[in-house]
From TrEMBL:
Protein name per UniProt: UPF0102 protein SAMN05443637_12378
HAMAP family reported in the protein's UniProt record: UPF0102
Assigned protein family: Belongs to the UPF0102 family.
CDD domains listed in its UniProt record: PoNe_Nuclease
NCBIfam families per UniProt: PRK12497.1-3, PRK12497.3-3, YraN family protein
MF term (GO), any: nucleic acid binding
Keyword Ribonucleoprotein part of the UniProt annotation: no
Top-level lineage group: Bacteria
InterPro entries recorded: Restrct_endonuc-II-like (IPR011335), tRNA_endonuc-like_dom_sf (IPR011856), UPF0102_YraN-like (IPR003509)
Keywords, in A-Z order: Endonuclease, Hydrolase, Nuclease
Length: 118
């Protein structure tokens, strides 16, 4: 399990650097509540962007983004409402993205950013 956790943490670090390079400002990482966790909450100065980060060491068993199914998307939306309430944000324009990272050993990571994924 530790190797999987390390891969996930590495993927999130890569995703955050990528998002910041795109001009986004990260507001929260790994924000948790009873309902679940948000990987990254950021802003692009126009809207709040909730990013689910999926990392795999290969695509042997499918692309990382395929793991974000409708059930997972619904959970992320519910947790986002909790984040908004906790941060006293009454209303803002929201976007839900998926950042997929494939980090094969010995190769540069490949990043695919799906904007407005769900």
């Amino acid at each position: 399990m530790a190797a999987k956790d390390d891969l996930g943490r590495r993927g999130e670090d890569i995703a955050v650097r990528y998002l910041e390079h795109q001009g986004m400002v990260v507001l929260s990482r790994n924000w948790r509540c009873r309902a679940g966790e948000l990987d990254v909450v950021a802003t692009d100065a126009h809207q709040l962007v909730v990013c689910e980060v999926k990392t795999r060491s290969s695509e042997r068993f499918g692309a990382p983004a395929e793991a974000v199914d409708p059930k997972k998307a619904g959970r992320i939306k519910r947790v986002t409402q909790a984040w908004l309430a906790a941060h006293r944000v009454r209303w803002c324009d929201l976007r839900f993205d998926v950042v997929a990272v494939v980090a094969e050993p010995g190769a540069p990571a490949r990043i695919t950013h799906y904007r407005s994924a769900f």
